[in-house]
């Protein structure tokens, strides 16, 4: 058994002790097919969004890891992957930042540099890592990055609530398997702080690595209704990354969960464009 096998076993053991965790929502290492279970030049870490889990980015994150000839770490943020009503009680941006830091450390045990693949709030955390840990990040793939919410009034109402509340809207069987059905309102307060305090131009200007932004914006009545398209476009302009090493692609007939074929009609295009960008940056073959 290698050191990485032991690391994977430790992660699995820790996840087994999480109360109420749903099947296939666990954090885990996915070793690359045909790769030795030793540290590679690159690893891929997937950071999921608010109330979501690793399935939000599947199978795209696995395909990207294969193209990077990398092992993959599927992270799980605190309070996620379970329908326990109190799972997000006490949630804070600092707690999720600590989770992202720990995920990056796993990535650095798997590879010398890390490609961060991310969705929504996970992309916010990926951008925050790129600000704070530039030496460790090979590239960031940010799908529907959370900069500001689409409807500030809705979030303002949510942060005034107390205790656990049902997730809004109808949920398909797939969503019920991989997204939280109950959310403690501390989670809404945490995400509001994260966007306002950390997704700011003076911070994102420090980012210099290759960055891909994918967003749902096909025009009026065909754009993201969870995160602000205008804010995503503004944030892309804030990046310190040279213009030749950053790319923004807008998709019509898509969904906020941009890369999931279960949620987004544009998922195949999103994956193809993400792979093409990483190839052009010399990160993927």
Can you describe this structure in just a few lines?
The chain is α/β, with parallel strands linked by helices. Helices cover 38% and strands 17% of the residues.
What are the SSEs and their pairings?
Blueprint: H1 3-16, E1 28-30, E2 40-47, H2 60-67, E3 71-74, H3 93-110, E4 111-119, H4 121-132, E5 137-143, H5 152-159, E6 164-166, H6 173-178, E7 182-184, H7 186-198, H8 201-204, E8 211-216, H9 229-238, E9 246-251, H10 267-280
Parallel strand pairs: 2-3, 2-4, 4-5, 5-8, 8-9
Antiparallel strand pairs: 1-3, 6-7
How would you characterize this protein structure?
The strands form two sheets. This protein has a seven-stranded mixed sheet, sandwiched between helices. A two-stranded antiparallel ribbon has the order 6-7. The protein has ten helices and nine strands. Helix 2 runs parallel beside helix 10 and helix 3 packs across helix 4. The model has no long low-confidence stretch (mean pLDDT 97). Helix content is 38%, strand content 17%. The protein has helices at 3-16, 60-67, 93-110, 121-132, 152-159, 173-178, 186-198, 201-204, 229-238, 267-280; strands spanning 28-30, 40-47, 71-74, 111-119, 137-143, 164-166, 182-184, 211-216, 246-251. Helix 2 (60-67) links the parallel strand 2 (40-47) and strand 3. It has 285 residues and is of the alpha/beta class.
Structural class: alpha/beta
Overall residue-averaged pLDDT value: 97
- Strand composition percent: 15-25%
How would you describe the shape?
globular
Question: Percent helix among the residues?
Answer: 25-40%
The strand count comes to: 9
The biggest beta sheet is recorded as: 7 strands, mixed
C-alpha-based Rg, rounded = 18 Å
How many DSSP helices? 10
Q: How do the strands line up in the largest sheet? A: 1-3-2-4-5-8-9
Q: How far do the termini sit from each other? A: 29 Å
Q: List low-pLDDT spans.
A: none
Order of helices and strands: HEEHEHEHEHEHEHHEHEH
């Amino acid at each position: 058994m290698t050191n990485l096998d032991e690391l994977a076993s430790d992660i699995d053991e820790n996840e087994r002790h999480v109360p109420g965790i749903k099947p296939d929502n666990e954090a885990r290492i996915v070793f690359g097919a045909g790769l030795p279970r030793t540290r590679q030049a690159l690893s891929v870490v997937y950071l999921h969004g608010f109330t979501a889990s690793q399935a939000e980015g599947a199978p795209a994150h696995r395909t990207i890891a294969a193209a990077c000839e990398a092992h993959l770490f599927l992270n799980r943020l605190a309070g996620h992957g379970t329908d326990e009503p109190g799972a997000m009680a006490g949630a804070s941006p600092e707690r999720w930042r600590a989770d992202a830091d720990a995920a990056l450390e796993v990535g650095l045990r798997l590879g010398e540099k890390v490609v961060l693949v991310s969705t929504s709030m996970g992309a916010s955390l990926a951008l925050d890592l790129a600000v704070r840990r530039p030496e460790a990040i090979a590239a960031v793939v940010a799908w529907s990055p959370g900069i500001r919410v689409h409807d500030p009034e809705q979030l303002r109402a949510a942060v005034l609530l107390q205790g656990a509340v049902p997730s809004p809207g109808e949920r398909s069987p797939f969503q019920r398997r991989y997204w939280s059905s109950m959310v403690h309102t501390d989670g809404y307060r945490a995400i509001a702080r994260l966007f306002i305090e950390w997704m700011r131009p003076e911070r994102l200007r420090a980012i210099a690595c290759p960055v891909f932004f994918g967003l749902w914006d096909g025009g009026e009545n065909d754009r993201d209704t969870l995160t602000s398209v205008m804010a995503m476009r503004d944030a892309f302009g804030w990046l310190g990354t040279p213009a030749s090493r950053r790319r923004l692609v807008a998709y019509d007939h898509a969904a906020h969960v941009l890369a999931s074929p279960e949620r987004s009609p544009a998922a195949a295009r999103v994956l193809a464009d993400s792979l093409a960008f990483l190839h052009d940056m010399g990160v993927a073959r």
